[in-house]
Amino acid sequence: MEAEKVIQTVDLSKHFGDFIACNAISFEVFKGEIFGFLGANGAGKTTAMKMLCGLSAPSSGKATIAGFDIYKQTEAIKKRIGYMSQKFSLYEDLSVLENIEFFGGIYGLSQQEIKQRGQQLIDQLGLADVAKNMVGSLPLGWKQKLAFSVASLHDPEIIFLDEPTGGVDPVTRRQFWDLIYAASVRGITVFVTTHYMDEAEYCHRVSIMVDGEIKALDTPENLKKQFQVDSMEDVFFELARGAQRLGD
């Protein structure tokens, strides 16, 4: 059976005046896939993600998220996705439990579901001793893992993660990816932007954006073979060097 497509874009573009942030990007993402959306800062990753989440209207092109049109059905899309922004996305002046209850309510969960899933989340992350503490008092790594878990509290079809591991230590980054793998096993699609090229190795497939355009899209293994290099960092370097030559 053909894998279920949960994200489809065709020539999706976003202009800000004369500046083209995303230029006719086309790709597909499948159910349960960990899809890396890579590129340097300013490459257009966050702009593309905001369009896919219904937070920013495209200038042109087409896209569907979980079968819904990003122009006409943004509210339906928002109910079926989880989103973790580049900046920490929970309320630091609320406790761990209060954040869970607040976002559970926003996601439309019943009080019983919030209590049950919230307890599972706290047990999974080992936060029982600090459940009543203000989130602002937690280390950054714990905040990020909590934010991801809250974004998946309502079992969304797709979770969008915008630079989720920025500023955290390597051990915490690896633990964070364990959460991503677990979500994928449950059938949740994870769409993750990052500028850490080593994290590309953890993805099922990756696309690499350069100056608002997708310049490569395949599995990490196939891309390394294509460019005859040993790492995704080298793949990115080759693409960036090629773009620089074209610009000279």
UniProtKB/TrEMBL annotation:
Record InterPro entries: AAA+_ATPase, ABC_transporter-like_ATP-bd, P-loop_NTPase
Segments crossing the lipid bilayer: none
Keyword terms, alphabetized: ATP-binding, Nucleotide-binding
Molecular function in Gene Ontology: ATP binding; ATP hydrolysis activity
Alphabetical list of Pfam families matching this protein: ABC_tran
Keyword ATP-binding included in the entry's annotation: yes
Taxonomy, superkingdom: Bacteria
Domain ABC transporter: 7-236
Keyword presence, Lipid biosynthesis: no
Gene3D superfamilies recorded: P-loop containing nucleotide triphosphate hydrolases
Record protein name field: ATP-binding cassette domain-containing protein
